[in-house]
Structure formats: C-alpha cells, structure tokens
Give the backbone structure.
Amino acid sequence: QVQLVESGGGSVQTGGSLTLSCVVSGDTYKDYYVAWFRQAPGKEREGVATSHTRGGRQRYADSVKGRFTIVQDNAKPMLHLQMNNLRPDDTAMYYCAAFPSVAYSLDPSDYRYWGQGTQVTVSS
C-alpha cells in the first residue's frame, strides 16, 4: 500500500505562483512513476505532469508546459509541483498519484494510488 498526502494549495491572483507538495509513504522501496492531476468543477480529471523517481524524462500537458515543473525530493520522499504564471483556468483540485499501469501516463484511469487533493484557486 502507498499513501499520498498533498499540501500547498491556496488562492492567488493571475500571474502568481504556488508550489504544491505531495508526501509519499508506504511500500515505496522501489522506483516508481508519480504524477499530478487536476479536476475543475464539472470537468473530468486531467493529467498535468508526470515523472519517474529515478529522474530523467518528464511529461507535461500542453496547457501547463513552460509554466509548471515537477521537482522530486527522493530523500523524503516528496513530489513538488512548481506552478508559475497561474491563470484562472488553472483553478481546480490538484491530486498526486503513483504507480500507474502505463509508464508516463497522464490518464487517471491508469493510476492505482491517489492523494486526497489540495485546492488551487486563481482569481483574475
């Protein structure tokens, strides 16, 4: 079993920045894929970014490329999502997830473990 707990959400104005964090615990003795997702009211959950704990390639949704960055801290272990130049359409509940059935997947149906989410609100 793996547990994930997100934090760092909040309210910012357009153009502002936030850093989300996700603490991963449990059966994490091996390398694995992690990802961030988001879900706005009335919309489907969408993949934001994913990477592997060993580093290397990262994958981002087109809507966040150049603005969001995944940062790994495997010593703790923690996963961060640095979000810059935020826009109102970034407003959503943000979730971290781990252990997908498909490498580098941004499809939420591929992920086995989820956190409870942290709210991000961007005002214009």
Notes: The mean pLDDT is 93. The CA atoms of residues 48 and 63 lie 8 Å apart. The first strand starts at residue 2 and ends at 7.
